[in-house]
Amino acid sequence: MTRDDRHLAPSGRVAYVNGRYVMHRQASVHIEDRGLQFADSVYEVCAVLDGRLIDEAGHSERLGRSLASLDMPMPMGPAALGIVMREMVRRNHLRNGLLYLQVTRGAYRRDHVMPENPKLMLLMTARPTDTAAVERRRSQGIAVVTTPDLRWGRCDIKTTGLLANAMAKTEARRRGAFEAWLVDAESMVTEGSSSNAWIVTDKGVLVTRDLSNAILAGVTRAGVLSALKSESGIELQERAFSVDEAYAAREAFMTSASGGVVPIVSIDQHILGDGKPGPVTRGIHALYSSLATSS
Ligand code: PLP
After folding, report:
1. C-alpha angle with apex 180: 215 to 178, nearest 5 degrees?
2. What are the residue ranges of helices labelled H in the chain?
3. Of residues 5, 44, 4, 13, the one with CA closest to residue 194
4. Are 29 and 94 contacting, i.e. CB atoms less than 8 angstroms apart?
5. Tens digit of pLDDT for each residue in 30-50?
6. CA 160 → CA 55, 147, 200, distances in Å?
């Protein structure tokens, strides 16, 4: 490790690689790993708040779905996975942070054809959240910009093939925004580069895109929807919305495990409402976070 690599792995951090807890600095995978060669791998990101895993069951279920879609088995059962996840939280002294899990199809001589009965690779890393930055985004709101959705046809699978997402997020940062909203060929918003997209229309209707191969079924999205079932006051529509509808929205927000509910105050420099996080968004954040942390 050179001086320049040190930011990758502050000392004391522990990673998990196929059955072993190792120092993050020393953790490595094989040069022929199919995750590296083909993005033949899936992942999950699970938030840790006050030392507890948030929406563990939802992440574990989605991991199973992603793996099944690619004809890979679970590397271990959900109960054993939960034990490793909690052990990672413990060994990393994680209070507030993110647990990252990845399953690859393993290391093989490079060949597009997928091996039968693969020897899967499971790895996990953990890192603390910058809680001050999260709170600043929550109180001030963030800007998003729109960009064409260049991704493949199975965005419902949480694969590590994230080049188009990374390009979109990088473009957003270059344009002074925090997130990119991806737009399909019909000028409809699919989702964010690493989040689901929501608006509150000028009529006060909450809208988020319906589930399909075009978006990832966010665990936080599902958590918000189930929290809203106990709130009868808000009219909800799961459907695609256009960029123009988003510009005219009263409020907007994004959801993800890493950020929870994050208010959006401008889209392509169109200011939403009074340019501050709106009451519906704040209410949904309060409702979701109280339910997510109480289970
Ligand atoms: N959509 C995409 C493309 C994502 O990468 C993510 C999270 O990383 C989400 C949506 C939100 O999903 P979740 O709430 O499960 O984090």
Report:
1. 130
2. 34-38, 56-69, 78-91, 131-140, 163-174, 219-229, 243-247, 279-294
3. 44
4. no
5. 999 999 999 999 999 999 999
6. 21, 20, 31
Rounded mean pLDDT, 185-205? 97
Average pLDDT over the chain reads 95
Give the DSSP letter of residue 31.
T
CB-CB neighbours of 185 under 10 Å: 7
Ligand 1 center to 84 CA (angstroms): 22
DSSP state of 24: G
Cβ atoms < 10 Å from Cβ of 37: 18
Closest C-alpha among 186, 173, 201, 192 to residue 272:
201
Ligand 1: list residues with CB < 6 Å: 45, 165, 191, 194-196, 216, 218-221, 255-257
Other Cβ atoms within 10 Å of 278 Cβ, number: 21
For ligand 1, the distance from its centroid to the CA atom of residue 169, given in whole angstroms, is 13
Burial of 17 (0-12, 13-18, 19+ CB in 10 A): middle
Dihedral over Cα of 21, 27, 31, 34: its sign: positive
Instruction: For the chain, give percent helix, strand, coil, nearest 5.
Output: 35, 30, 40
For strands 121-128 and 196-200, give the pairing. Answer: unpaired
Question: What is the pTM assigned to this prediction?
Answer: 0.95
Q: Across the strands, what pairs with 197?
A: 254
pLDDT 10s digits, 146-172 = 999 999 999 999 999 999 999 999 999
Asked whether 100 and 126 are in contact (CB, 8 A), the reply is yes
The pairing of beta strand 142-148 with beta strand 260-267: parallel
- Measured in Å, residue 192 CA sits from the centre of ligand 1 at 8
Q: Which residues pair with 206 in a beta bridge?
A: 200, 236
Name the closest-CA residue to atom 5, ligand 1. 194
Q: Which of 174, 196, 290 is nearest to 241 (CA)?
A: 196
